[in-house]
From TrEMBL:
The lineage of its organism: Bacteria, Pseudomonadati, Pseudomonadota, Alphaproteobacteria, Rhodobacterales. Keywords: Acyltransferase, Transferase. This is Acetyltransferase (GNAT) family protein. CDD domains: NAT_SF. Pfam families: Acetyltransf_1. It comes from Octadecabacter temperatus. GO terms for molecular function: acyltransferase activity, transferring groups other than amino-acyl groups. PROSITE patterns: GNAT.
Amino acid sequence: MKWKIRQEQEGDEAVIADVTRIAFEPKAFSDGTEETLPAKLREAGALILSLVAVNGKTVIGHVALSPAKVGDAKWLAVGPVSVLPDHQGKGIGSALVNHAVAVAQAYGRGGVVLEGDPAFYGRLGFVQSDALTHQGKPSRHLQAITFDGDAEGDVEFHPVFSG
Ligand SMILES: CC(C)(COP(=O)(O)OP(=O)(O)OC[C@H]1O[C@@H](n2cnc3c(N)ncnc32)[C@H](O)[C@@H]1OP(=O)(O)O)[C@@H](O)C(=O)NCCC(=O)NCCS
């Protein structure tokens, strides 16, 4: 069956945590806490967008948008992004991120920012810049798409991302 993307609905909460855990589990960079992030953002009223990819009724992927700041400007952060291993490599992760970016653009924020692998996000238009820092330091994993103004300054993600 062809997969599609829809907004999170009531009842998806547990499966979103499962999909996030299963996707991140094999990754060396995982700290084992990613699965808790969608729920923490939801509880904090900071889950601005929560999209799921579904195959029939089965949730196979997820992406979140949350508020972030770049310097004094209001931006949005993309992530976590997860696709179940059996469904990876079919364009689902790219489609989830692209949809989230399109929604973010309609929000009228400065842009979208994330920490992730440039090899994946660079293909989706994200650009790394040393003018962006996180906790005062630049990083090759810190990447942005700018809608308005400059991608310049220290990035402040929602507090749930720092534990
Ligand atoms: C990253 C992720 C969401 C991509 O989902 P997906 O549905 O496989 O993505 P797509 O099919 O749209 O794109 C897959 C392509 O991206 C590449 N890719 C996926 N993850 C990558 C990574 N971390 N680094 C570099 N390339 C990556 C794949 O090799 C594939 O390349 P190909 O098309 O040349 O074969 C998925 O691999 C995943 O859930 N990974 C575990 C969790 C994770 O790492 N999340 C992102 C954290 S920053």
